[in-house]
Amino acid sequence: MVRVNSQLRYGIKRIATAALKALGCEVRRLKELPPRMPGIRHADVLPLATYSPWLGDEEFQNVYELIKHNTLVDQYRCYELWQLVAEAGKLVGGDLIEVGVWRGGTGALIASKCQMIGLQGEVYLCDTFRGVVKAGSRDAGYLGGEHADTSKAAVTGLCDRLNLKHARILEGIFPEESGESLAERRFRFCHIDVDAYQSANDIVQWLWPRLLPGGIIIYDDYGFYNCAGITGFVNEERRKTDRVVIHNLNGHAIVIKVPGGAM
Ligand SMILES: C[S@@+](CC[C@H](N)C(=O)[O-])C[C@H]1O[C@@H](n2cnc3c(N)ncnc32)[C@H](O)[C@@H]1O
What we know:
alpha/beta; binds S-adenosylmethionine; single chain; 9 strands; Rossmann fold; seven-stranded mixed β-sheet
């Protein structure tokens, strides 16, 4: 009897959700979700602002159409990356790097924007191409090996289709297996989309002395229910005085290196 009732409730909910979707409405949860990690609480985030500049940005829309089937990242976060590449262009010099490329969507978007605005510098796209690594006890939601359904060839193909001249693909665990060739480079922009605490930590340890003052790090998955490790890691970064940490409600955390702060 209990089972029939819950199945009936589930069925009614699905039909009501589909009917509202057909009318252009979305059903969202108002209740807090059960916590996955102590101290990290979750509820659906529903900002009230409506300004949507990506809708009228033709250059962005053209590129987004070409990359959207190669990314797990939504349009809001893609547009923020697009804008932050231009902000990083205000710094003098420095390359750009993404760790966590999967099928190349956000990496190609970043490289496209660079090329469009004539930003000097290489765009390094780093991935194991064998999925998430270093998942551990802090990473509720990840076990390791996720997102292995890609290849270097898939990313090369996308970069070729977009005619990207400065995208460089590096295969291997970053930084241990692929960081050596970049040891002497300096960076103005870094997108970290690796899903696991220890990977994020190792990347930032490597990157920080190479990040220019004013340089920007964007963490994907900050605040996502299944990415407790990234949320926890960024929260720890707040204790450091040489970086400004911004929680963006779209699921990004943005970190800016304080000019004049400790190297
Ligand atoms: C969520 S996917 C990236 C999504 C991608 N940015 C997009 O546009 O959808 C995470 C990727 O991080 C990669 N990865 C995780 N840890 C890594 C590490 N330490 N070094 C290199 N790649 C890593 C995985 O192989 C996986 O492809």
